[in-house]
Amino acid sequence: MRLKENIFILFILLSSFTYAQVKFEAKVSKKKLGVNERLRVDFEMNQDGDNFNPPSFQNFTIVGGPNQSVSHSWVNGKRSFSKTYSYFLAPKRQGTFTIQQATIEIKGEIYKTTPIAIVVTKAVDKPTDGNNADYIASENIHLVAEVSKTKPYLNEAITVVYKLYVSPNTGVSNWREVDSPKYSDFWSQNIDIKGLKIQNGQYKGEDYRYVVLRKTVLYPQKTGKLEIEPLSLNVTVEVPTNRRDIFGGRLMTQAHRTISAGSRTIHVKPLPEAGKPADFTGAVGDFDFAVTTSKEQLKASESLQLKIEVSGNGNLKLFELPKVSVPSSLEIYEPEHTENIRTNLNGMQGQIADTYTVVPQYKGKYPIPDVSFSYFDPKTETYKSLNSNSIVIDVLEGPTNASSNDNIAAAPNSKQKVIMSNDQFAFVKTETRFTSVKPEPFFKSVGFWTSLLAPLLAIPLAMVFRREKEKRDADVFGNKIRKADKLAKKYLGEAKKTLGQKEAFYVALEKALHNYLKAKLHIETSDFSKDKIKALLLSKQVDHAVVGEFLDLLENCELARYTPFSNVAMQQDYDKAAKTISLIDKQAK
Predict the structure, then answer these.
(1) CATH code for 21-129?
(2) Which residue ranges run through the membrane (predicted)?
(3) I want to staple 148 with a disulfide (CB 3.0 to 4.6 A). Which of 159, 497, 519, 585 is the partner?
């Protein structure tokens, strides 16, 4: 009987020892794969630990992870625990490589995994990757920048259309811009997209759905090889799994991907020198030209409007209109410049004009010399010149110009005979008249009494001012409000001016928020992600709620480019920004 009890106790102790034994091991989805496939590595443990340290993964690129999963289960009264760190790797080249040891600390002891050898072969025709959601997402979503022309002339319009392609079995639930192109050396203008429309198309010969995220018109401002910076997005992708619901439908899982359209190179050709007109000022496109007047008959001292107008399709905002010369008897004023331009995928279209006010001084007929306008047509690759029709201004009534010998006024550079007059120096005084000046004594004068009494009157005013200042300094709540208003005016002034203009308002608001962080925390926020900004503000002891409101404002500024925002929402974001800046200013240490 005693022997049976001892055996039972020994069995219980051995079972407890076996249960308490720590396991920490590395597992891979495959030990041999193609260079275009993906590898999953799991580090599993049966007890919770701290200070997990993964290997360096040399010769591999981490495309996903680390993902952490924890499992608790009870089977027949026995508890089991499992914790896993998962990584998804892409090999950099062919060869035999080793997944080195990972370490973790469990109950004060350091445990290590066993190294695993991986063989990477040449690319396979159909790469398989198991249930790797990141790999599936990377193969089924693409961001493409479509450029209308890669070899334009200087100042010739090109368009860049950014399309997000998604395969039929994959979905996208959210995205945000990570990097936006700056378009250096280009004049650029974004075309507003009202609502995202899902369309069907093909990508590399396969059926896809796509949406147009952005349209931009560019005019190169220098010749040679120019780079268009890439647009990068952080996308949440809905990926199908092998699991199904009770109705047989596939269950979806989410994967987060950063995708980029890639940089594009534009080779800009200079405008040809052969045949370039002397009056060419840089106009490139297809234009019409006209010179008109509001009237051709009038009286002296009345005015007329002389308009020089260019209309058509081209770089309308990027060249100067020709100047007009008129006879010297016509007084001409500086022109008023007007523009009526719309921009679409074909570039700028519309009219620009300079309107001069002209006032004749004398009776007569005055010719307006012809005005010429030259431009380069990229379709025919030739220069074209347009001339205005001649115009004669007929002044019916007014004084006669004595220097004119006929009805047609002299040209602007013609010399006129100078008529001498006996009264031409009448304005010069030739006689002197003296007036006696009696000095007024300073004593008992107005200046005397002012100098004497002013300091005495200033004393009570200074006392009142000091009392009001002390009262104002003691008003803690009021000072906080005034300080908040001052900060809002300083950083949010531009945003307030553009309330009601969605894109301009949110661009100014985002700039204001970044400028505040630069001034307050002495950092360059253009190199910071939202996570870094959050960590920095929290390290300055700013409340989590305030940091969250600040990040929400930045996100609103990004989403405003793709979603409709009402004037009420803009006003709310403006008020929220003023409040948040004030709270950060008070809390940051």
Answers:
(1) 2.60.40.740
(2) 446-465
(3) 159
